[in-house]
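[job 4471] stage=fold_predict status=RUNNING
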Amino acid sequence: MMVKVRNTSVAITPTLASTPAAIIAGVDEVGRGALFGPVVAGAVILDASTSADLATLGVTDSKRLTAPRREALVPQIKSQARAYALGLATVHEIDRLNILQASLLAMRRAICRLSVAPELCLVDGNQRIPDLAVPQQTVVKGDQVDVAIAAASILAKVWRDALIVRLDRRYPGYDLASNKGYGSARHREAIARLGRSPQHRQSFKVAQQLSLLPEPGRSH
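[job 4471] inference complete, writing structure tokens
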């Protein structure tokens, strides 16, 4: 059954979120504001009963949860979800497309990888996903009001954090295991001192500004 929705950003109503005949995917991304690494999106399809169960377990906006709590919820989400998938956009795609378009691309890739085709996608934020062959509805602060969107944010956040920790061993000196690629003071200082690695976003202004600082041992 196709669900018709308006092409506007609205809050989810209980009727929409719990429509039993509709296959609804919640979609969210993480890493949009980072200086390093890809942007990662999650897509999760839940039944009404599992949505209620996960809400009881504490599934909510990933930013409101501690890292151990997010990690503990991942097996619960995966075991109870009807389908889930991740998608990403690389640093090169971020620099080529811009971060907004790369984030939307990662979301579309996550949706396309779902093993169950959704009839409606609830997309966190106020930007529609281009070229998506599925009805979609944007939901401002959706990870705070819809369990499937929140679950998608948790899966994406935990997976991306683990990736950045692994990349910290490949690109030491930037404190990545701690900052997860975001612009902490130690991270910015390391960029000024070491320059940018291949996984740093070249198009981000802060990185561009830092790269103008003198290299160690050199003066202008």
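[job 4471] summary: Confidence is low (pLDDT under 50) at residues 1-18, 212-220.
[job 4471] exit 0
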